[in-house]
Amino acid sequence: MYEAFFNLRERPFELTTNPDFLYMSSRHQEALSNLQYGITERKGIVVLVGEAGTGKTTLLRAALASIKNPNAKLVYVSNPLLSRVEFFELLASGFELSSDASASKSQFLLELNRTLVDRHEAGLETALIIDEAQGLPHELMEDVRLLANMESATTRLLPLVLAGQSELTTRLNDISLRQLKQRIGLRCSLRSFDLHETALYIDTRVSVAGGNAWTLFTAEAVQHIYQASRGIPRVISVVCDNALLGAFAIGQRAVDAKIVRQVCQDFDLEAPAAGSPGPPVRTPRPATDTSQPNGQSPRPYQAAIDPLSAAARPDQESETYYESETYCAASPTPAAIADGSGRAATPFSILRSSMVR
């Protein structure tokens, strides 16, 4: 609806698991590498844990898409709330076993083992991926363990990925599932974004859609989106999509804090009060940075992608981290930061540039 108005090829914040729109934070990159490694190197069970909306399913699809072999057999189970019979029917279909395998567990295991051995000898990737695994019935958890037991003398035959919310961790700590837990070869987790990552997430999705986030969202709007969403990617997308729709409805070319507050009220999100200070930001680089060659000014994009210092990472205690209790209401002026051409930066680039010293 609003794509043409904002010069976009498509809507950037659709709630689909399209890996083309995946923003790779450092934690997402680490998790993706673990998933790829676990599947291709047959590391047994890989566990991916993250709260609802942090991008687990999108990351799983990106991992599957990264395996380019057209003969790879990657069976993806998106709804684990199945009976045992339904579960084995689904797997028999996914691994292209006979109809007899769907009706008999023993026949299923025999055919699957033979198929896995043949595929391993042919050098073909095979894996089972179970999403929303925290909902697996207890009896299916035991069946997953049995599937993980399939191995040759030298390697696992069926890599498994279990992805789920934090309840999955709780279930795996159950004493009755200790044998399953002992077979976990890799473990990774996703967390919500900080302010820096929220800005880059918005920028990535808008860029993929053909737009420029620097002109679509003001710095204060991005700060409000971060506060209201608590850095959860799915909520960020909901707020941004509706904020763009609201701006389009009133003929406004940029989303400001007022529009974001209205969207948050409509969705019963805790919106920052008008005029309230945003999360603390670090001192922006001056227009002339002596750390740059010949004293040249850093480009806004360069400033945006510079890694945060170790003291400012979310897993470290630091008064400069965005969720600390120390707030700084001061905001840099457009004149304080310039882009590579020497022109004043946009409000969005000011926000992002102010996130690095």
Q: Layout of SSEs?
A:
Blueprint: H1 26-40, E1 45-50, H2 56-66, E2 73-77, H3 84-94, H4 99-103, H5 105-121, E3 126-130, H6 138-148, E4 160-164, H7 166-172, H8 178-181, E5 184-190, H9 195-208, H10 213-216, H11 219-229, H12 233-249, H13 257-266, H14 300-305, H15 347-353
Parallel strand pairs: 1-4, 1-5, 2-3, 3-4
Question: Descriptors for this entry?
Answer:
alpha/beta; Rossmann fold; 42% helix; 15 helices; 357 residues; Helicase, Ruva Protein, domain 3; 5-stranded parallel sheet; 5 strands
Tertiary shape = elongated
- What's the N-to-C terminus distance? 39 Å
Structural class: alpha/beta
Give the full name of the CATH homologous superfamily of the largest domain: P-loop containing nucleotide triphosphate hydrolases
What's the CATH C level of the largest domain? Alpha Beta
**Name given to the CATH architecture of the largest domain:** 3-Layer(aba) Sandwich
**Strand content range:** 5-15%
Structure overview:
- Strand 3, helix 6 and strand 4 (160-164) form a beta-alpha-beta unit.
- The protein folds into two domains: 26-190, Rossmann fold (3-Layer(aba) Sandwich), CATH 3.40.50.300; 195-353, Helicase, Ruva Protein, domain 3.
- The protein is 42% helix and 8% strand.
- The protein has a five-stranded parallel sheet, sandwiched between helices.
- The chain contains 15 helices and five strands.
- The model is unreliable at 280-347 and 352-357 (pLDDT under 50).
- By secondary structure, it is α/β, with parallel strands linked by helices.
